[in-house]
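Protein: Sarcosine oxidase subunit alpha
Species: Helcobacillus massiliensis
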Amino acid sequence: MTTASSSPSRRTDAAPGHGIDRSQPITITFGGQKYDAFAGDSLASALIAGGNLQTANSMYLDRPRGILAAGVEEPNGLVTVKARSEDDIDETMLPVTSVEATDGLEAFYVSGQGALDPTPDPALYDRKHMHADVLIVGAGPAGLAAARAALQGEARVVLIDKENRPGGSLLSSRTAQIDGTDGAQWAADTIAELSENPDFTYLSRTTAFGNYDSNYVIALQYRTDHLEPKHREGVSRQRVWHIRADQVVLAPGAMERPIVFSTNDRPGVMLAGAARTYTNRYGALPGQKIAVFTTNDSAYEAALDLHAAGAEIVALVDSREKASEAATAAAERTGAELSLSSAVIGTNASVMGDRLAAVSISELDADGALTGETRTVDADLLAVSGGFSPTVHLHTHRQGTTTWNTEIAGFVPNDDVTGEHCAGALTGDFSTQGALDTGTRAGAAALAAAAANAGFDPGSGSGDAKAPSAQVADEAPLCGAEVKPLWLVPSATGSTDDSFVDLQRDQAVSDIERAYGAGMTNIEHIKRYTSIGTANDQGKTSGVNAMAVLAHMIGEEDLGAVGVSGYRPPFTALPFAALAGRERGDLFDPARVTAIQPWHLEAGCEFEDVGQWKRPWFFAKDGEDMHQAVQRESKAVRDSVGYMDGTTLGKIEIRGQDAAEFVNRFYTNGFKLLKVGKGRYGVMCGVDGMIMDDGVTMRIADDRFLMTTTSSGAAAVFDWLEEWHQTEWPELDVTLTSVTEQYSTITVAGPKSRDVIAKVAPGLDVSNEAFAFMEFQDAELSNGVPARICRISFSGELSFEINVDAFYGLSAWKLVEEAGAEFDITPYGTETMHVLRAEKGLIIVGQDTDGTVTPDDAGLGWAVSTKKKHFIGKRSLEREDSQRPDRKQLVSVMSVDKKTVLPEGAQLIAKDADPTPKKGSVQDPVTPSNGQVHSYGFVTSSYMSPNLGRPFGLALIESGREREGEIMKSLVNGELVEVEIGPLCLFDPEGKRRDG
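Structure follows.
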């Protein structure tokens, strides 16, 4: 087959090509150049097959770079993939090794940073939740063996794998056989066999990127990028899977490490395992004259496979003193010279380009120093293997710990995560038979544990499950053979500026030396000082090497002595669009509406958004603006009666034997002795003692409370309750249920509200004697609807709240409308509610508070119990700073001219502030240009009140209560306005109107 590129073809028929379909040729365009490829190719393998190994230059130092790896660990090759169709957008910062080649694909390299496509993405993204008895991550030989064992019982088994086909390392092997069948074919046959079981789910092209508490794994699946456009319609492009598993088997394999030496970043330096993968999986030979540099036996498998595919092996360089059987065999069969106790100490580029043309080799003495003469060998590819790092990322996501294993020179996971079982290379056993054995044991153990927890039949799988048998010619596993890590090859020039540790961040050994010289001796400090491991590859090829270089400087053989670098989700980069799923556009912040919404719309209501709710803001009549409507509504409530849709208030039902104790711990005042049928206003503080929410909580029964919260704070309060219940007080018998949307709430307020309620609920005695403030009673409305009616007031007026099942909300609203017609009952919205409550000095959390306001600051000191031994925030309220007399306190403010409505947020300054202070003046300036302006506080709420006959507001002011009657100034529209400080409550301070 001839390539469409200008470079010579490196596609070889001598390799098995386990991952490609040679009967399906495709064409891709890369950097404007066309390349021939096959279905199953990665973008990287297609380029290598076309003779193109070089990537974009490095981001910071602009050094030539080439493809290093074959998987997600690739640090150099980042690409932008052009929109695959008209219904697509460009994607950028994708590893060239992870992009599946498809016919017509267009892409180009980016140098460390791509540009986001500003075009709106029309693709569909979604999420799906799944429960599994056993979840297996990785479909290599270990994962497949685990799945076989786990399916011997009645378990629901899910197997996820990031590759487009099963097999893992088997796809990269030329000779592996399982139970007498070609390894790659055995993997495909195994998936086909397991898929006949209805309890088995296999998700390919799916990467587990996060592992959380209680075996909660989140994975990203690519579903359509490999399909023809006609097959993509109606299918989500990517899906985020949320999988809750009883048991998890981790079989993610291991990642090969590069070796750190001078000019180790040159294009043509490639991991030996990657060279083997490109050759055997993709039939793409990455070089013709290949040198091998290794610290272990695994690279000799690659040497033999490359040689079998037609490449010339020009040198075998081994850091170890003695030749292993694998090394001797490779030297004999390839005819290459074997150099022991040696290292590659540098590379040279061709005269005509940047790609590797030769390697420099030197012997090492017993202390690792250079010795003897340096020789140069011509080579166009250097396959390096510095050993393998088990892929412990998902294990450490669960706070799992690791131990440095000197036998493999790598970190292996400890058995310290509940419900987790490790298999394959993750355990440090890198042989194929070891993968099958450990996988089978892990699958059987997971099945037995899941069966015991769920009570189903484990079948035969929990016994001595038989592992498949592997036959692999030329396999040279690390276990059982000497591994001599070579963390840092000395530089012939003495400079380490070009001995690179992190290729993506252009960080060399010299950068670690500078960090160490600055006193950094922990790897976490080194990472932040140098930025090693902080690029989108998250240090997959650099992390352990950086630790090793630091340990070498300190003189430690145990890498754990310099600190173990933890990994955080995500394991690989993922698009924000996938995380958002369907929650974008109109669904990004869904609008919530009450059952009374149709009536509001017909009445011409204007709405405001509060905690996703569409809350009625005001009801303007013909010719009215908002100001006029609010003035009319406010007057109507004070003079007669008004009604408001209060459905949006958060409602949380708290049930259980310890419900009273639970509620009591959150509020600053007492609730344990609250009687059934009564309600009480409560203030909820954070641990810092600052107000976080407020509301009325009613005791429905001895073991049942109904807590109301602010509309916008409902979700946060519910999370707050759940957090304390689950993490601090799990011993309390409490169940929490959000019931906000289960009830419609109608507030009827004003002097005539009692008359309206008497007509709406004719069987209810609404007199003060029979129905006191802060009580509730169950009643039947005149239309037969059951209701809970409460006497609660947020306006200072005689007020009732009618609560009915949400289904009856609209009918109850119309019933109130009909009953109040003779009193000219007026609907009112949130703006009028704000005016009414502010006249009474009642706060709105989040408007009159800002996270720095204590209950006493807000005039709610009376709601803080002096008898309670404990409530959340109590200790913080007892701090000296929380009791300072000069704290900002909530008071009322009124413009002296009785005309100016102060803007919310307006700053209050001293009365004698001088617009143009003279030098040496003791007066405060007004503008910063004349000196520092001292603000004594600011306006939090401001309105025009028809009931007070003037504008007024609330403000947080230093020592505010002591300043009542004092005059201050505020700059409004460039003019200084005098402002009088008043008491918090301006309307009916005696509270006579509350009882009618």
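Remarks: DSSP finds 20 helices and 48 strands in the chain.
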